[in-house]
Design a protein that fits this description.
This protein is of the alpha+beta class. The strands form two sheets. Strands 2-3-4-5-7-6 form a six-stranded mixed sheet, with helices on one face. 18% of the residues are buried. About 3% of the residues have low confidence. The protein has four helices and eight strands. 22% of the residues lie in helices and 39% in strands. It has one domain.
């Protein structure tokens, strides 16, 4: 029997018990510690994560749903995909998520404000806003960071030549 590996514990955990959330909203300003930033940098393949902060607003809305809105800000250093030199960037991201009771098969979307939204399962009534921010940071990272001015030089011959042309040349030598 194959064992399923354990899911590692989140590096940046900040729990909010929404069952205790009264009508209205709760605003939390969170910041990752140096050790949390180092662990997140390793997780996301960053050279450095110098800063990660977020302002998170959690509020109850109609139908027993919970809306999470946040603004995250981070200073990251990634490797240039061309030169492998460090590329420093500031990431600023606003996002919104909707949470509710676990939906039945086929009922994972709800329409609010004229747009279909995916409902994230609320589970035991607790949201880890630190992990939510970390996941959104990973989505906001530049997948192909470039150092300014870095280019890939290719000769026209290598661009125009197909693999079959190379095989044809090889066959003529024999």
């Amino acid at each position: 029997m194959t064992e399923i590996p354990e899911t590692p514990a989140p590096e940046f955990t900040r729990m909010i018990d929404v069952s205790r959330l009264a009508a209205g909203e709760k605003v939390c300003d969170i910041a990752a510690t140096p050790s949390e930033r180092a662990a997140l940098a390793a997780r996301f393949g960053l050279l450095d994560l110098a800063r990660l902060t977020a302002s998170v607003k959690v509020s109850r809305i109609v139908g027993g749903f919970v809306r999470l809105e946040a603004d995250l800000s981070a200073d990251v250093v990634q490797s240039c995909v061309v030169t492998l030199d460090p590329v420093a960037k500031r990431v600023e991201e606003h996002f919104s998520l909707l949470y509710g009771a676990a939906a039945e098969e086929g009922e994972a979307e709800i329409i609010l404000s004229g747009e279909a939204e995916i409902v994230e399962p609320l589970g035991d009534g607790v949201i880890d806003i630190g992990e939510v921010v970390a996941q959104q940071l990973s989505l906001a990272l530049d997948p192909y960071p470039h150092k300014p001015g870095a280019t890939v030089e290719a000769t026209q011959e290598s661009v125009l030549q197909s693999p079959f042309a190379a095989l044809a040349k090889w066959g003529k030598k024999a």
